[in-house]
Amino acid sequence: MKDALLATVVEEHATLEAFASLLVYEQKALAAVSPLETLPGIVEKKTEFIDKLASLDKIRDTQLREMGLPSGGKGMELAIADDSRLAQQWQLLQGAVDRAHRANSTNGLMIRVRMNYNEKALAILRGAPGHAASGVYGPDGRIAAA
């Protein structure tokens, strides 16, 4: 049974590493001038990875319960206590989780910065109160009066 659990954790690790790599690729796309060309494909692939990781998590929890252990982190702590191969692979998986979490946080920040920039640019172009519209051309092609 532990061999099956080990195989699941190995597959989780490989999937999470691929997911973390995709997040780095997403960072590069978000930094591009026009990310809309690549982002839809990235989002689709991210969804596939998330679904696969959720499925592997359920499989791992089932395997733990079949071994008479609780599901989740507590069960894994007990499972790795007497299995160095499983412990090593679990540690690798946790490292990949940390890398993916950091990359995802960075991407979220990049998205928020881009959205704020776009909102401010639109407010200026619309001549919203509190935003200086001087130097911006109006619908008639003339620069708006200050």
From TrEMBL:
Role: Required for the efficient initiation of filament assembly.
The entry's keywords: Bacterial flagellum biogenesis, Cell projection, Cilium, Flagellum
Family from the record: Belongs to the FlgN family.
Pfam families: FlgN
Biological processes, Gene Ontology terms: bacterial-type flagellum assembly
Highest taxon above the source species: Bacteria
This protein's record includes keyword Nucleus: no
InterPro entries: FlgN-like, FlgN-like_sf
SUPFAM superfamilies: FlgN-like
Gene3D superfamilies with a match to the protein in the record: FlgN-like (1.20.58.300)
Protein's name in the database: Flagellar protein FlgN
